[in-house]
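Consortium newsletter contribution from the modelling node. Members have asked for a concrete example of what our holo predictions look like. Here is one, prepared for the adenosine monophosphate complex that several groups have been discussing at recent meetings.
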Amino acid sequence: MKSFNTKEKLVAYLNSVRGKNLKIGLVPTMGALHEGHLSLIAASKEKCDLTIASIFVNPTQFNKADDLLKYPKPIERDKQLLEKAGCDILFNPEVSEMYHDNERWNYKVGNLNTILEGKFRPGHYEGVTQIVYKLFTLVEPDFAFFGQKDYQQFLVISELTKHFKLPIQLQACPIIREKDGLAMSSRNVRLNQLEHEKSLQLYQSLKFIKANYGKLPKEGLLNQAKGFYNDDLLDLEYLEIADQHTLSPINDQKNAIVLVACSVGSTRLIDNMMLP
Ligand code: AMP
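And here is the predicted structure:
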């Protein structure tokens, strides 16, 4: 696997191979890789001739300084995992390589910025779109792979891509879970054993909603599911059933998704499930 930490070297390499008519796949990550990330690498390898993973803990998308500070960075382990997964290129820049001082980003995220994740993490999607735009225009991939785990992020990036008319096909890949159902996340390593057990309530509540969707009125169903979070260690931010395309409140039963965000101790987790 080739590894680059400057834009110049990455672009020089990509320019040297671009004429060969290769399909390029990009997998943006913040590292601390797990099977969820590796499933995106596998999806890219299936569709593309050249797979690029980026590892960049993007400061502009963190709305809590402490979360950024505590974000795990096991770069040597990550490199080994990418190598083993057959990734072709790693792009792992420093913050100063991607941002200059007092940089502005004027893209308006729209309605998705004010609901669910957007509401609870002010500024998050501005930061996400800022870095993804930089990566997209740097790499100019044919395909980019994202996880359904960050479903709202996928919709935001879809809008970004349309807005700038970027010729990149986006692909959402299924959520990879631990054996016990917990959606894999780089933040899971912060959970102690008790917190890990409690965090299973997210998956349990989503399964409960999926099993009963359409059988009970929406509000009653959500109220019952919120009962899963009656625990001192759990701090539920939202549990909502929404339209899959807009994430607005849903009126009919088709094309729905249930999404949840909950802190378990000091670790914030998200998950979702398509309905019915
Ligand atoms: P992150 O490193 O958390 O920014 O995630 C990088 C990419 O991996 C994003 O597209 C995530 O949606 C995706 N991802 C994270 N966790 C999972 C998972 N459990 N299953 C599938 N994809 C995931």
